[in-house]
Amino acid sequence: MAFNQALLPEFDQEMANTRKTLERVPEDKFGWKPHEKSMALGALAAHLANLPGFASLAIEQSEFDLAPPGKEPYRTPPCATTQEVLDTFDRARDAARDAIAATNDEHLMGSWSLLSGGNTLLTLPRVAVLRSFMMNHIIHHRAQLGVYLRLLDIPVPSIYGPSADEGIM
How many CB atoms lie within 10 A of CB 6? Predict the structure, then answer.
């Protein structure tokens, strides 16, 4: 089985669970933080909504510089409303799925590099970037968002099994 075909069922499941979690983000709490060192809820939701875009980026480019010399560093585009978070996520998810579906094993085994200020931080095969920088990164921040929801007493959706708020999946 081709790598992209092996990734797509998991991608679809994780994206559905991520959207289900993002739907619960209350925009009247976008500025809320559980701790002074924490990301604000709205910023976390926007970050999570944009993360599927790393799939397209890794497939379509050979590198990404977080802080290109002489240019502004990358910043997650903010979202002002929950609907904007969902629309951003839907666009990024759809583009990522299309890029994954259209690629092949040879391309996925090619190298992709993350840079900062022109300096290479890491180089991995694209398939590893899809698993770590995109999928695992999304799962990590989705779990973080689940904690935020719990602390705000907003029902946490079931993801891999029942949550304390939902007995069904």
Answer: 12
Segment 16-28 mean pLDDT? 98
- Span 37-49, average pLDDT: 98
Domain 3-151 has CATH 3.40.50.150: no
Q: How far apart are CA 102 and CA 33, in angstroms?
A: 39
CB within 8 Å of 93: residues ≥ 6 apart: 15, 19, 52
- Region 38-57: what's the mean pLDDT? 97
Tokens 């840079």 locate to 115
User: What is the reported pTM?
Assistant: 0.95
- Domain borders along the chain are 3-151
| CA pseudo-torsion sign 61, 112, 121, 129 | positive
Determine contact, residues 29/115, Cβ cutoff 8 Å: no
